[in-house]
Amino acid sequence: MGRLNAGYGRVQVLWDVDLAVEARQIVALVGANGAGKTTLLRAISGMIPVRSGSIRFGDREIAGEAIESIVDLGVAHVPEGRRLFSGLTVRENLTLGGWRNNNRDLSRAVALFPVLGQRLNQVASTLSGGEQQMCAIARGLMGEPSLLLIDELSLGLAPILVDEIVARLPEISASGTSVLLVEQDIDTALTVSQFGYVLEAGYITKSGTSKELLADPTIQEAYLGLRAT
Question: Which domains does the chain carry?
Answer without folding.
Answer: 2-223 (3.40.50.300)
